[in-house]
Amino acid sequence: ERVEVFVALWLDSKCRLIEMQTLARGTLTQTSVYPREVVRAAIDRNAANVIFAHNHPSGSIEPSHSDHRLTQSLKAALALIEVEVLDHCIVGQRWGTSDDGVAEPKNAYISARTTAAPSIYSMAQMGVL
């Protein structure tokens, strides 16, 4: 995507997918997600768990300060209705050069070995959540 897109993967109590929902579409550098609307969406779907994900059109997969703040706000709001935030993933494309000079993605969590695959930063895996 050329703009930031924020999605929720709503899960039941056995972590089975209920629905993938786009919560917001933004600009090249930001999107607006409102905890009140996210709580409403969780209730409407009778979700027990959720995984959030959004992309960084810049290609960076490092979470910004606002990514951390939003994750904590959503986690606190959803805890009030007993919905657990399992993860918040950032999808991007970070390119570097391998030892043999071939361009390849670089990131903190998953490195895909093809030029078409995205890189993903998992806040839960990195201990942020």
SSE class: alpha+beta
* Widest beta sheet: strand line-up: 2-1-3-4-7
Number of strands: 7
Distance between the termini: 25 Å
Overall pLDDT metric? 83
The major beta sheet can be summarized as: 5 strands, mixed
Rg: 15 Å
Beta fraction: 25-35%
Helix content range:
10-25%
Which spans have pLDDT < 50 for at least 5 consecutive residues? 96-116
Number of contiguous helices: 2
Please state the overall shape, judged from the principal axes of the Cα atoms. globular
In N-to-C order, the SSE pattern is: EEHEHEEEE
How would the blueprint of this fold be written?
Layout: E1 5-11, E2 17-25, H1 35-45, E3 49-55, H2 65-79, E4 84-92, E5 95-97, E6 103-105, E7 119-122
Parallel strand pairs: 3-4
Antiparallel strand pairs: 1-2, 1-3, 4-7, 5-6
Helix pairs in contact: 1-2
Structure in words:
With 129 residues, this protein is of the alpha+beta class. It has two helices and seven strands, in the order ββαβαββββ. A five-stranded mixed sheet has the order 2-1-3-4-7, covered by helices on one side. The chain is globular, with a radius of gyration of 15 Å.
Features:
two-stranded antiparallel sheet; 129 residues; five-stranded mixed sheet; single chain; globular; alpha+beta; 7 strands
Task: Describe the structure concisely.
The chain has 129 residues and is an alpha+beta fold. It is built from two helices and seven strands; from the N terminus they run ββαβαββββ. Helices cover 20% and strands 33% of the residues.
